[in-house]
Amino acid sequence: MSADPVYLDHNATTPVAREVAEAVWPHLTGDFGNPSSASVQGRRARAAVDHAREQVAALVGAEPDEIVFTSGGTEANNIAIRGAARHLATRVAVTSCVEHPATAAPLAHLRDHHGWQVHELPVDDECRVVLDEIPSAAVGLGTLILAHNETGALQPVPDFAERVHRLGGLVHADAAQAVGKIPVEVDDLGVDLLSIAGHKLYGPKGVGALYVRRGTRVAPVVLGAGQEGGLRPGTENVALIVGLGVAAELAAKVLATEVERQSALRETLWDKLARAVPGLVRVSPEQGCLPNTLMVALPGRVGAHVLEAVGDVSASTGSACHAGVHSPNAALLAMGLDADTALGALRLSLGRSTRIADVESAATALARGLGG
């Protein structure tokens, strides 16, 4: 039986940490209570949810009552954008042209169905938003991805927040790719709303959270009972919420050492690939980037074909495939890359289990594939 490929796709999803899995299991079996119930089992479930809320809040520097549990980053983004929009008189939104669909689609919904103007700001050649393009008129809502899911570029969210607040708007950050990989403090960012995805930080899929700063008015996008402060009705998924809480606590413990360790491994990977593959382009910025993320591109090659040929590395490409035809990633084109280079992009994202032997093995395999 052949060994599994080297896993360099942690920006797609992370494996569930052992401690998380062990914490989840009891709430799928014996501790099955409904947190809204006054029964013994229900009170235990409520205590577990409350503790998880404290753990998640601590990771991002929030208060527990500012954390709303959701089914993931996409739902958190929808509640933040569509829910906040219902209370905003100024129907003008500001965002970047390189947002994740989980943010871009709710904004498009506001534009197409509720008469909002949506200003998509350009980015520079490092995938960072050009803040000087923010309009000078009143703004209702600003939303920005904190760490770009493809390139790993970190956006200037504090400066963005200051400018949007000055124009009268609320500020939301999609931090799905950032929380658990870099330090994230809501007060330092200056945001009113912030989205978290459990499966990006070694927690389960199907659970996330939304930070809602005290005093921020947000309406639910799904109607029902009053769970999660009325913002996310429906019986809480206690097991997955507990898993998210444990994942958040683990992330806080290892964050400092993992930032340094993964940054060093990423640079080793780049050095080996750059020496072995003439003409290879580093798409990810060298500074102001997620420590685990390296996007590279080789003009004239199709990244998807390279990964198919290599087989020994699990990673992602910067292209989309429709009916067998590959098209370049729009974010890479927005950065100024030509289509030929953008089609050759590979996103390599490291994780806590990545070791130097993995990097060396992956570099050898990728160099062979890129050179073929």
TrEMBL record:
InterPro entries: Aminotrans_V_dom, Aminotrans_V_PyrdxlP_BS, Cysteine_dSase, PyrdxlP-dep_Trfase, PyrdxlP-dep_Trfase_major, PyrdxlP-dep_Trfase_small. Keywords: Iron, Iron-sulfur, Metal-binding, Pyridoxal phosphate, Transferase. The keyword Magnesium does not apply. Its EC number is 2.8.1.7. Its cofactor is pyridoxal 5'-phosphate. Residues 6-360 form the Aminotransferase class V domain. GO terms for molecular function: cysteine desulfurase activity; iron-sulfur cluster binding; metal ion binding. PROSITE patterns: AA_TRANSFER_CLASS_5 (PS00595). It is an enzyme of class 2 (transferase). It catalyses: (sulfur carrier)-H + L-cysteine = (sulfur carrier)-SH + L-alanine. It comes from the Bacteria. PANTHER family: CYSTEINE DESULFURASE, CYSTEINE DESULFURYLASE FAMILY MEMBER. Belongs to the class-V pyridoxal-phosphate-dependent aminotransferase family. NifS/IscS subfamily. This is cysteine desulfurase.
